[in-house]
Structure formats: C-alpha cells, structure tokens
Amino acid sequence: MSRTEPTRRRVPTWNLVLAIGIAMAIAGCSSVFSSLPPAVGGLPEGTPARSADAPAFPRVHEMPPGRSDGVMSSAERKKAEAELAAARDAAARRATEANAAAAQ
Question: What DSSP letter does each residue of 33-82 carry, written as one string?
Fold first, then answer.
C-alpha cells in the first residue's frame, strides 16, 4: 500500500539569500551613489556639498543655563489669559461667519 505525500511548496531559499545579499551590498554603497550623475541615481544638481568636518555631538549630561526670566506675575498671567480668550472668541466668530456665508 503506497501513501502519497501532500505536495509542499518549496521556499526558494537561494533567491531569498541572493535578494538579501544584494540589498546589503546596495545599502553599503549608498555613500558612493552621491558622486554619480543624477541620471544614474546620484544627487540632483544644486544639492549643497557636505561639510568637511562632522557636526559636534551634543553634550547630553550638561545642564542648560538657568533662565533669566522669572515666573509670570498674576497680573501678567491674567493679561495673557485675556489675550488668549479674545483670540479664541475672534476665531470662533470668524468660523461662525464663514459657515453662515457658505450655507447661503
């Protein structure tokens, strides 16, 4: 008595390995592409040249200097709140007028 095995779809492993290898090779040569002409895949004309020296790495552990301005006083805070409320009301009024004009 013979048993038939179900047919399995064979995964093309060599094609996958080849595709990954080509992708890695292209990614490794990305800095070379900048010197190619634009028609072949290089940088377009008018692109600014790279600087000769790399920018300085930001200093992570240094604290920024203290602020020269102090905390807002209550009068300054009330004035800022009033200005923001007036701007909000004006924007709402303009939006209402625009909706009314569009509905007509």
Answer: GGGS-GGGT-PPTTPPPPPSSPPPPP-SSPPPPPPSS-PPPHHHHHHHHH
pLDDT tens-place string over residues 15-57: 888 888 888 877 766 666 556 666 666 677 788 877 888 778 8
CB atoms inside a 10 Å sphere around CB 44: 7
Q: Which amino acid is at 84?
A: L
Contact present, 21 and 13 (Cβ < 8 Å) = no
Residue 33: which of 21, 45, 42, 46 has the closest Cα? 42
pLDDT of residue 43: 72
CB 36, CB 42: distance < 8 Å:
yes
Share of the chain above pLDDT 90, in %: 28
Q: Which amino acid type is present at position 22?
A: I
